[in-house]
């Protein structure tokens, strides 16, 4: 059996150290390679321990045994270093996995923000994309804040950009209201007529007809107001707005 010399052991340990940093760097990019590096290092450590123990047992020469014992101590120190590097490598692997998980969670959250969502408006369901939702919310916020001029611009832009939106009927109706509060009855009538024409199935359509009749009355177009109220009763007979129209006609 060949004697394990100090230089031979040093060469084996040096080879193990030369191999280790490459695997440690690889762990930053590939989990499988990092795991393989850990397993390989552990196997090398155990092989070195087993080989050294076997050779000590087979030596009868006292001086040779002493040399081997000294070599073993040196080797054990190197093994301890290898184990330390294994721990570092395992820790790096754990950190990589955590970063990957955090990255996935962040990416998933960003994707969800870009996905259309389902909303219910006036009893109807529809999907809206984030840009559409943001534009509508901004317009309504201007309206609620009393900035009717800019609200009218924002609502008009919204209807032009999203004519098929689940919010379109509301936006067109609110647009008519912004004209009315600015004492622009003609603009209000035109805007509300588009609600009736383009969104006849919307609950806002009956409200729009009431608003049209109100503006026509204020413009002294009483005959037109009566016709609008009559049409409202005919189109939406079972609605609260139809009852309001009947009450108004009785008073005229």
UniProtKB/TrEMBL annotation:
GO biological process, one term: FtsZ-dependent cytokinesis
GO cellular component, one term: outer membrane-bounded periplasmic space
Keyword Signal: yes
Protein name (Swiss-Prot/TrEMBL): Cell division coordinator CpoB
Keywords annotated in UniProt: Cell cycle, Cell division, Coiled coil, Periplasm, Signal
Domain YbgF trimerisation, chain residue ranges per copy: 62-118
Stretches of the chain forming a coiled coil according to its record: 72-99
Outer membrane lipoprotein BamD-like domain mapped to chain residues: 131-250
SUPFAM superfamilies attached to this UniProt entry: TPR-like (SSF48452)
Job description of the protein: Mediates coordination of peptidoglycan synthesis and outer membrane constriction during cell division.
Signal peptide range: 1-26
Subcellular location: Periplasm
Domain of life: Bacteria
Matching NCBIfam families: tol_pal_ybgF
A Pfam short name: YfiO
Similarity comment: family membership: Belongs to the CpoB family.
């Amino acid at each position: 059996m060949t004697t394990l010399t100090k230089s031979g052991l040093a060469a084996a340990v040096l080879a193990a150290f030369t191999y280790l940093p490459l695997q440690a760097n690889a762990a930053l990019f590939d989990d499988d390679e990092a795991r393989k590096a850990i397993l390989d290092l552990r196997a090398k450590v155990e092989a070195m321990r087993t080989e050294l123990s076997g050779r000590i047992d087979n030596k009868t020469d006292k001086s040779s045994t002493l040399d081997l014992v000294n070599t073993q101590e040196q080797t054990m120190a190197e093994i301890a270093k290898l184990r330390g590097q294994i721990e570092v490598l395992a820790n790096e692997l754990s950190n990589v996995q955590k970063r990957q998980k955090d990255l996935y969670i962040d990416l998933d959250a960003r994707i969800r923000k870009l996905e259309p969502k389902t909303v219910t408006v006036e009893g109807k369901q529809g999907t809206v994309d984030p840009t559409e939702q943001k534009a509508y919310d901004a317009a309504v916020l201007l309206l609620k804040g009393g900035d009717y001029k800019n609200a009218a611009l924002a609502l008009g832009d919204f209807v032009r950009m999203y004519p098929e939106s689940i919010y379109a009927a509301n936006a067109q109706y609110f647009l008519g209201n912004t004209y009315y509060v600015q004492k622009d009855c003609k603009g209000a009538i035109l805007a509300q007529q588009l609600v009736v024409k383009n969104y006849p199935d919307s609950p806002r359509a009956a409200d729009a007809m009431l608003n049209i009749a109100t503006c026509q009355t204020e413009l002294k177009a009483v005959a037109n107001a009566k016709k609008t109220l009559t049409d409202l009763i005919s189109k939406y007979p079972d609605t609260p707005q139809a009852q309001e129209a009947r009450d108004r006609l009785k008073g005229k």
